[in-house]
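Treating backbone geometry as a discrete language has practical consequences that deserve illustration. The sequence in question and its structure tokens are set out directly beneath this paragraph.
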Amino acid sequence: MSLLLTGLIFCLGFFVESIIGFGGTLVAFSILGFFFDIKELILIALYIATSASIFVIASDYKSFNGKIFLKALPFCFIGTILGVSSFLWISSEDLLIVFAIFLILLAFKVIFFDDIKFPKIFTKIILLIGGFSQGIFGIGGPFFSIALRSKFHNKSEARATMAMFFITFNLVRVIQMSLQNKFSTEHFLEFWWVVIPLIFAIHLGHIIHGRISEKAFKNMIAGMALLAGIEFLFK
């Protein structure tokens, strides 16, 4: 029953991500972080999030913007390597505190400063931070979106290109952890079946993503992240 509920919560998260372009892992972590060790949860999400992104890019590969991807690649790659190294080094207890602070800061940004536009000079720094966040938590989407959203022509292009970011840097995470003998396929085997309901959840989100308010969804996610972050901080 716990495996079933865990899989369904991830499906809920990626239904949301299919609508706004990011937030799948964030939603799942905000709920499941109360029941799982944070490191274990991050490893579970690695398989599920990668599967979700593969489906997104496979279903809308024509919207992928290779030029944007390649320009951002070096900074995100370096950040991811640093993030994975931190993930392997930090204890679960300290990682949960770092994650709690991350959630709170991200929630405040979305709620109060979502429309702020950073000068272009900061784009590379934000991409580096996004890569680091992807490496340590598997949540780089909010930063990739901040850095690149003005470059995308439409929602579909952003959605497909972001999916390729997640696939690429999750692969980097797997390789880096494997080289250090810190990677196990145990969680992949336990949750292999999640990809089936996941496909339906993502497809449904894609159908309705142009018909609902993204702002409302972002605020809902931010509110959830804020409450979870405060709770995790004192857990």
